[in-house]
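Ticket opened by: R.M.
Priority: normal
Category: complex prediction / small molecule

The reporter submitted a protein together with ribose-5-phosphate and asked that the result be attached to this ticket for the collaborator who will pick it up next week. Submitted input follows.
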Amino acid sequence: MRRATWVGSTIVVAGPASPSLAAKLAEALEARLVEVESKLFPDGESYVRLKGGVEGEDVVIVQSCYQPQDKHLLELLLLIDTAKDVGAGRVVAAVPYLAYSRQDKRFLEGEAVSGRLILKLMSAAGADGLVTVDVHSEGLLRQAAMPAVSVSAAPLLASYLASRGLKGAFVLSPDRKREAEARLVAEVLGGEHSYLEKTRDRVTGEVRTEVRRLPVGGRDVVVVDDIISTGGTIAKAASIVKAQGARRVVAACTHPILAGGALERMYSAGVEEVVGTDAVESEVSKVTVAPALAQGVRRLLKLSRASL
Ligand code: R5P
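Result attached by the on-call engineer:
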């Protein structure tokens, strides 16, 4: 394993997937920002170049791995390797959306455990630590060979929702496994929270959500999830609360992946507004995760020289 050197100052590198988030993070950390030149060669191969020196410095590379995931991931690996190669001290990968984290184990025989491989690749490229936001599986991070932390965007989303007049709203997690996020948001909004039971067919991807009686009649409801991909999960939850008389339904998530027709699917189910963060840059990214990311980076950089 390569040995990291302790140094005092910090540089934030603006990966091509997250330039504006990187600028906000640099401001929060009072760090120097280094931009990146990136392009695709005519045959589709990726090119990156650091546009500033990083020698002897702690370097935080900000690159979210949303779609096109594989391109963003390769750019991240190239940047980590380059930073180390030109003499950076410790390199922290700040990857708000950790692609493939839903494939954290082998669900069906013969499947790739993609999430684990992504962590191995980052370590092999030279990353000394990883900070991500609302990782889908904490268990996946425990498989990392480097210190890896996930910070929560829930308090930031909750403050935004409060400013949109949603104080006291009923907060619903569309899946029991994500109930913790709903609880955090409900704590700030000062209302109740609950969850639905969801199952997904591993082969077809179809989502089934059990209908439960909830105290949502005449009330505003915020449905909170970590990821909105097709929007199917949120749409099911929205239809259930709408059928029980909910007034305004707002969907909130950390990672607005918004694959093919997701917004339309949710709006047709009765969702009035979708709120996401810039962990994934999208048309609904209304909240920045920079403060949470900065906390995570500080935590990692405070770790002793031996463990980073
Ligand atoms: C899955 O377990 C996640 O927490 C999300 O609920 C899921 O990724 C959302 O996917 P979709 O928007 O496609 O239903």
